[in-house]
Amino acid sequence: MKRKLIASVLTFMMVASACPSVYAATEHYNDSSKTGTAEEWQEYKENWSEIAEDYTKVSLTPGKDETELNFAWYSEKQDTEATPVVHFGTDQDALEVFEGESGDVDTSLTGGKEYEYNHVTVTGLEPNTTYYYTVERNGEESEVVEYQTQDTDTVKILYVGDPQIGASKGQPQDGGELTADEGAANTAACNDGFAWNRTLNIALEQTPDLNFVISAGDQVNKTGQPKEEEYAAYLDPEVLASLPVATTIGNHDSLNPDYMYHFYNPNATENGMTEAGGDYYYSYGDGLFIVLNTNNYNVAEHAETIKEAIASDPDATWRIVTIHQDIYGSGLDHSDTDGMILRTQLTPLFDENDIDVVLQGHDHTYSRSKLLYSDGLTHSGYEFRLNEDGTDYDWDNAYNIDTDEKIPFAPEASDADATAAYEEFVEDNNCYTIEDVEGNTVTDPIGTLYMTANSSTGSKFYELTSVQQDYIASRSQNWLPSYSVITMDETTFQIDTYQITDDGTVEQIDDTFTIQKTAE
């Protein structure tokens, strides 16, 4: 038996501003000078200039399926042509050559220095096999790197939210304040890069047989600005040389093409485009993974991506969508302002396409929803727009795409019309139904599970909403970096979530949640 929600009006939502940094309390971030060991932190700081100035690190991305692997990296531009070549194989003395494509990097993003990006796909991978690879930079091969594939019958995925390298700017450290200046002077990126490296090392030590990582967006922080030192810190961890990451375009990633240079996503579409790129999809094991750039609010285009993805792998047991904005989250203030923007449009779309799980970020808090599906009623559609100079999003207002009405998130008490528009927006987003199920193991549900990942680095945390929404089953904010491990096979999708204490201890912060599917 299922019950329809009658949600109460959320009066606490009258916030002062919807700007994403308002609720990051000063003490609520991860201070890398106080985590790990003093020796590790000192070594990282001493190497920071070298890390920050090396834009040429390799990023690995899952290919179209588990038999492929995508590479992307920068090389300094020279008189000779770029050589987008990967040498890959099981015999490091006889590696096979795979060629790809290259292009110019926008020099306004690299301080005027000329680089070319290189994109290459390697094919023919087998599970449980040790490979080796090198990449070419202007004809010169890098050192050999070992790459180990894992089992694909049971797939293990590290799911993280908002590394957001550089977001700790303005926070205290060592008697001063972290800054987000350019290059090595970006001490916030130094702080967060160390934390990102620490999280990945701890997660991989806990689960050494990970197949790949899913990041729910905001890899970096400087929206619409040059930020290569932040990407350099993001790509620096040694584990990423042998661990692919399926990234999502977050709002902080979306307004520059540098994201598209650094990550070679499979099955890239022209749908959902911003400066950073658009939607993409891939298959892995028994799962079909669909990644939507929800910084573009054209849901008709996202629907086309989902349709194309399903046609490519119609028999996949699991259909998993990743988006950055958490349409069902529990953080203050995203989950009840800009996080809701696409809820009325995406909820029925996910129903129509039998999406099992939606992985989200953006909220800098952890939450797990109940199983949800659309209420079947007609609702308006909403979107965000850029500010006047196009350098960021207008976080203070939503827009009704049917009427073009502007909806302020913090209306003046004396403005009756604005207040009424805001309250109508809130009520219209009560567009979901909660599936009536018991326990933390469910079989053949009809609803969709919505997960929201907290910050994986602790570069920035938000408060939880003062009242837990009725669609939320579990939530957490302990001001500590966290991550989830997904274990997936042909009948089971299981997710476990952990936090990392200052001394490096791993603690589970939610009950294991499992979805089971019968043969049919």
Defining key terms:
about 525 residues, Purple Acid Phosphatase, chain A, domain 2, Immunoglobulin-like, seven-stranded mixed sheet, 7 helices
Please provide a brief summary of the model.
The chain is an alpha+beta fold.
Structure report:
It is built from seven helices and 34 strands. By secondary structure, the protein is α+β, with helices and mostly antiparallel strands. It has two domains: 23-36 and 149-379 and 429-516, Purple Acid Phosphatase, chain A, domain 2 (4-Layer Sandwich), CATH 3.60.21; 67-148, Immunoglobulin-like, CATH 2.60.40. The strands form eight sheets. Strands 11, 14, 15, 27, 31, 32, 33 and 34 form an eight-stranded mixed beta sheet that branches. A seven-stranded mixed beta sheet has the order 16-17-18-20-28-21-30, covered by helices on one side. The longest helix is centred in the middle third of the chain and has 20 residues, at 187-206. Mean pLDDT is 93; it is low at 1-25.
